[in-house]
Design brief:
With 159 residues, this protein is mainly alpha-helical. Helices cover 62% and strands 0% of the residues. Helix 1 runs antiparallel to helix 5 and helix 2 packs antiparallel against helix 8.
């Protein structure tokens, strides 16, 4: 029996590998930022959604996995969600809020947020211990799949 060991560096490499084609597709969107995807969102709305879920890794890891408080002044790119009461709305609530936020923002602002969220995610990954990765393996293995999933939404047909 082969036992596969997954470490922080494996998670990092996976996220880097899936981010590169996603970010490249974002850069090529141009006027496509306002075209609807097959999910019915515009590319702007979908990129804001991706940014939010990258940002959400911080509260998940820091508060849920490590049992610590968020850093002073920490907030999501779309604003403070009032998570201090311990509640976490369902994914549909977050997704709708992020889509609404994106509708009133420029493509540049949304892409900048997405880039900042990705940088923040990578910094957080660099703080993980290999034990944390093993303890929450499915969560960390799923991180890179989000870019791959949404790449299909924004990439030109046939890409």
């Amino acid at each position: 029996m082969v036992v596969m060991v997954v470490r922080r560096d494996d998670i990092r490499a996976q996220v880097v590998a899936t981010w590169a084609p996603f970010r490249s597709a974002v850069a090529e969107l141009g006027d496509g930022m306002v075209r609807p995807t097959s999910l019915g969102w515009t590319a702007k709305e979908m990129i804001a959604h991706v940014a939010f879920w990258d940002e959400a890794v911080v509260p998940v890891v820091v508060t849920m996995f490590r049992g610590q408080g968020l850093p002073q002044g920490w907030t999501f790119g779309s604003g403070d969600l009032g998570l201090s009461d311990g509640s976490w709305p369902g994914a549909d609530v977050h997704n709708a809020r992020e889509a609404a936020w994106a509708r009133t923002r420029s493509a540049t602002e949304i892409i900048d947020r997405c880039d900042r969220a990705h940088t923040q995610l990578m910094r957080l990954i660099d703080t993980l211990s290999d034990d944390e990765v093993v303890d929450h393996l499915q969560y960390f293995q799923d991180l890179g799949s989000h870019y791959r999933e949404h790449l299909l939404e924004i990439a030109p047909a046939g890409a």
